[in-house]
Amino acid sequence: MKIIINNDIVEFENKKENVEKIVESINQRLKENELDLSHLVIDGNYIDEELYQYLTDNILTIQEIVVVVKTPELIVNETLDSAYNYIANAVLLIKPLAEAFYQHPKQDSWKNLANLFEGIQWIMETVNRIDNIENLKNIVINYQIWNEYVQTIKGLSAVIIELEDAMVNQDQVLIGDLLQYEIQAIFETSEEKLQFLIPTGGRHHVS
């Protein structure tokens, strides 16, 4: 069978023992070329179920797998849409979380803080990833506002270091201050900027 991905063709024998190798090969090429999966077309048919299972069931008859990747435009739109949804929800949770740390944070408070910490890291990573896309000026809806959003998110870099130290030292008052006076403001500004940038949501591998 032939596997076509980003104008690259790889061939495998139609053997059941090759199923795992095929899935690994596709994922490796997606990762190496920093591509996101859109969908698969197998022998002319759109496939949206798990590739591993589909291959296991049909390995002897498949002739061609076309791996359709997402365009930069779609990646940007989906990522910004996800970022907007995350930030809009987080804005509503930060103030109550800060108040919890000013008092007596429970186990759920620490768990929510850890989740927020991971969310902030993800937001920063998405900004770096998008900002490195070629011809981004022709992709985002408003390039000036995009740059303003980037500068806003960069403000999280110093805050997240302080937050990590405060979490390690269990400095509850400092955590509350960082949440209420730093992160809340940055998230509110980010939400405003993203409203002018969004139109969608992404997969980065097959399974």
Automatic annotation (TrEMBL):
The entry's keywords: Coiled coil
Residue ranges of coiled coil: 9-36
Protein name, entry field: Uncharacterized protein
Provenance organism: Acetobacterium malicum
